Model the fold of this input.
Amino acid sequence: MRMEQHPIPRQITSFEFKLIGFMTLHQFIYMVVFALLGVLFWFIPLPLPLGFFTKLLAVVIGVAGIVFAMVPINDRPMDVFVKNLYKRLTSPTQYMYHKNNKSFEILNNLYFLADPHRVVAHVDAQEKLSRYMAKAHPRPTQEVAKSARLQGVNQALSARATPLTAATMKTVKSRGSAAGFAPIRTLATKQTKKPFFFGIAHNKKKTPLPNMLVYVKNSQDKPIRLLKTNPHGVFATFTKLPPGQYVLEAQDPNKKYFFDTIKVVLQDTNPHQIEITSKEMI
Done:
């Protein structure tokens, strides 16, 4: 025995019973409202050709009532189809996500700087460990000399020294000479080069401001140097400029801080620090 196939109902929750003849209450209201509007426009006493247009409009309204009440599209009533069509035509087709939640006030303007006391303690512990390892496990003289030379080269590079020649080599005794180490040859570091001028950028609470741009302008208001503050808010230049009056203009790339332009007089040597303070209200 073959069973007949039946379509699966799609509108279970919005099912409407036929209360008035073969029509539901929804269809009956559409028919009555559009029919009354059509009769109203049909009997409006207007001269030709306006009267012809009113009767044509009455016919269109009556047909629209029948369509809205009886003609479904994709198993949906005409009014639902028109409503969905209007939404799709007027709603945007692309959505952009924007993060609107603000960060906590306590987390704003935080700068984590290296603690010099921790650095000194780390260096001291490393030196003590090196001395202990040298006494407990002596290394061959050649290995010690190679390590000392590498350490001298690293110190020279960190101090921005020029390439060293044989004239700058000095003979010193190793710290482990008490353990029987032979004298080794190491590199003498050059004295740290002093900047031509330097300064610091901070806010009114004396908090350093890193990554600030500092423009150095001459008397013709033309930028001749562009400096950037480090994590400690310090900016400096090692290139000398002709003595005279200059203008320093600080800017924040993130537009959170604002600064006034200041005038400075530069000499051949400028040992004093230049301070630039932001002018925010708090």
Remarks:
- The first strand starts at residue 169 and ends at 172.
